[in-house]
């Protein structure tokens, strides 16, 4: 119980609606995204922690969490493009399309020519109609697909449009089971394990994902991420303050004292012609609100420094 007390004590003066900030965690294998949230709640000494974008328990790498007032940021972050390092194992299909599932067939990949592998990867690059993995968090009639599969149901999911902007083959370890190390840059909603499954099908050998590491999500990269151990040992358990987080993730608008007073009361400002969501900062450099001017005037979506 010793290690838990320190972080909570360190933050006992922080009000539960303090500004907080973002934490970029290097998620370890074997933990769910919710397990990571629970751990960061203990480290930061607050209940108000949420995460943006989920990683499967098997996967490691970048997971973005919001602490205290920065939880309001999570729904507005543009985390639409992601980069992964992955290992695809040819020669075996699994029920989950990854290493955690039961094997359900496959055939030797020892004789698959490299040019066919390259052609298969090229065919899975660009704008695709991808059928998500049956064991996924996609909802079917209000229930998660994985819950239906575990209850013994046959689940057929509809294809969805995804974009794989880059699919690079980095290394090949041939054999009955051939391992391909790849790097994938893709849109939100793309299942890398579905790419592994579809590549295995195209090559006639079967295939599944045996390792997955997310190296980037939106503007947040692995070199900014801390392990849970590093976070627990850090002097400040929220390394990216709310001000720094908004500055990193959104365009910036400098507000006058008059603008600041208006926005803090939920008032509207003259538009600047900026597209999308942006941060409004007061003369002292503190973020006041996220603003949006799609409907004409710039209006606050979230106010961080209320009146």
Task: Characterize this entry briefly.
The strands form three sheets. Strands 1, 2, 3, 4, 5, 8, 9, 10, 11 and 12 form a ten-stranded mixed β-sheet that branches. With 307 residues, the chain is of the alpha+beta class.
Tally of DSSP β-strands: 16
H/E element string? HEHEEEHEEEHEEHEEHEHEHEEE
Compute the CA-based radius of gyration: 22 Å
Counting H and I runs of at least 4 residues, what is the number of helices?
8
Q: Structural class, from secondary structure content?
A: alpha+beta
Spans of 5+ residues with little confidence (pLDDT < 50)? Answer: 1-16
Query: What is the overall shape?
Result: elongated
Beginning-to-end CA distance, first to last residue: 40 Å
Helix content percent band:
10-25%
**Sheet of most strands:** 10 strands, mixed
Percent in strands = 25-35%
Average pLDDT figure: 89
Chart the SSEs and their pairings.
Elements (H helix, E strand, L loop, with lengths): L1 H9 L10 E7 L5 H12 L4 E4 L7 E8 L13 E10 L23 H10 L2 E5 L8 E2 L2 E2 H6 L9 E14 L4 E10 L4 H12 L3 E11 L2 E2 L6 H6 L6 E2 H8 L2 E3 L2 H8 L12 E5 L5 E6 L6 E5 L4
Parallel strand pairs: 3-10, 13-14
Antiparallel strand pairs: 1-3, 1-12, 2-3, 4-9, 4-10, 5-8, 6-7, 8-9, 10-11, 14-15, 15-16
């Amino acid at each position: 119980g010793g290690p838990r007390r320190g972080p909570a004590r360190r933050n006992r003066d922080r009000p539960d609606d303090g500004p907080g900030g973002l934490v970029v965690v290097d998620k370890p294998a074997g933990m769910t995204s919710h397990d990571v949230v629970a751990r960061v709640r203990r480290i930061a000494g607050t209940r108000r922690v949420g995460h943006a974008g989920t990683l499967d328990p098997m996967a490691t790498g970048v997971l973005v969490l919001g602490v205290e007032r920065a939880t309001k940021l999570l729904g507005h972050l543009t985390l639409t493009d992601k980069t992964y390092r992955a290992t695809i194992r040819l020669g075996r299909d699994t029920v989950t399309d990854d290493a955690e599932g039961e094997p359900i067939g496959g055939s030797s990949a020892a004789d698959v020519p490299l040019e066919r592998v390259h052609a298969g990867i090229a065919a899975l690059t660009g704008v695709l109609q991808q059928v998500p993995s049956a064991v996924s968090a996609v909802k079917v009639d209000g229930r998660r697909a994985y819950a239906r599969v575990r209850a013994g149901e046959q689940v057929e999911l509809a294809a969805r449009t995804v974009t794989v902007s880059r699919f690079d083959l980095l290394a090949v370890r041939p054999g009955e089971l051939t391992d391909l190390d790849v790097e994938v840059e893709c849109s939100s909603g793309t299942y890398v394990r579905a790419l592994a499954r579809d590549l295995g099908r195209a090559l006639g050998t079967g295939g599944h994902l045996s390792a997955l590491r997310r190296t980037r999500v939106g503007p947040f990269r692995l070199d900014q991420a801390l392990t849970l151990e590093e976070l627990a040992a850090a002097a400040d358990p929220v390394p990216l303050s709310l001000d720094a987080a908004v500055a990193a993730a959104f365009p910036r608008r400098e507000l006058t004292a008059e603008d600041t007073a208006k926005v803090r009361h939920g008032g509207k400002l003259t538009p600047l012609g900026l597209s999308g969501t942006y941060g409004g900062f007061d003369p002292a450099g503190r973020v006041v609100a996220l603003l949006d001017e799609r409907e004409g005037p710039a209006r606050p979506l979230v106010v961080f420094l209320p009146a």
